[in-house]
Amino acid sequence: MKIKEYEAQTLKECLNQVRQEMGPEAVILETKKKRVGGFLGFGSKERIQITAALGISVNEPPAKKEPPRDIATVQTPSAPNPPSIHVINDKETREKLNRLEEEIGSIKEGINSIRLAVNSGMIATQPTSHANSEFPELLNRLVQSDIPESLALEMLGKLPDLSAWGPQARLPLAEAALRDIMCGMIKCDGAIKLTTGQTKFVALIGPTGVGKTTTIAKLAAHFALVEKKKVGLLTVDTYRIAAVDQLKTYSQIIDIPVRVAYNQSDVAPALQTFKDSDLVLIDTAGRSQKNVMQVKELQSLVEVAKCETHLVLSASTKDMDMMEQVSKFSGVGVHKIIFSKLDETATYGTIFNTATQCQIPISYITTGQKVPEDIEAADAQRLVGIVLGNALQ
Prior knowledge:
This protein is α/β, with parallel strands linked by helices. The protein has 2 domains: 161 residues, no CATH class; 188 residues, Rossmann fold (3-Layer(aba) Sandwich). Helix content is 41%, strand content 17%. The protein has an 8-stranded mixed β-sheet with strand order 6-5-7-4-8-9-10-11, with helices on both faces. Helix 6 crosses helix 13 and helix 7 packs parallel to helix 8.
């Protein structure tokens, strides 16, 4: 028997390693992902790790354990072709085999539990649609995450042929392949990129109540305290006095300058005071996507500031409303999307649906109110994992 872990950047690469070394008889015991590198959630990468075995069968119950023996082999003289019985005396090897048998049992129990739940109605099924999918468990997870069933079936239809693998291995392999397919359907651009010797202007725009001011505070704290960059804050959100006071409080805590522009003519002089900064973050007033005049005001600001725009959208927004917001604010010019308030909803399919339809790169997600901890640079593997039910923390 041979047990080995394989690691690669993608599922396909990892499976190729298994096939090349162990052949088609290999049994997948575990498929998981792990994050490597990065700092405070920024710049980390996710890799695929597969544990595979050769020389075991997950379809047959484990053989009855023999007690330790003092000899290596026992032969039966009366038998015409005496069998050889290899006796394992090494304690560590026996413990590994025992753990392996337990893991195989857990895999079987997990599969049986899923089947039992589906058959008993604990997991909602729609037979007419599920008949089109080899993996109803995955279809249910996608639909329950608020991904349209038509899109879910389309993605499952792109899964590779897994018939060469054992039944216990197919579901985890199918899920890993599904994650890769979903990752390829969205764009993640990650953290704001700065250029040495140049001032970067970034404006956060979006509807009211999506958390733009708090998100700006998180970004300011990260770049000022972690990246050690010179950061400036400009707010044009004078509609809410509390918003100005909130940003001033954050600027005092982080020890960075803040300016307030009360009208359009104040914007250019205020920006000029930040000419030696690495990054200037601009907080704008929330605008209803239905108010054309207010959206045009934003467009004027963007033209004056010559800034990069990040549209902030709340993860708890309905599909139709979110796509309307993207459509209306695109008139201003949207370069990136930030999905906020992931901690305020239980399903995340809307994020995936919007990202696949608009194809605007995602820069960040926010997962709570803590400054600066609850923000992270967008990563496709991480985002898809959240959509499929992984915990935020």
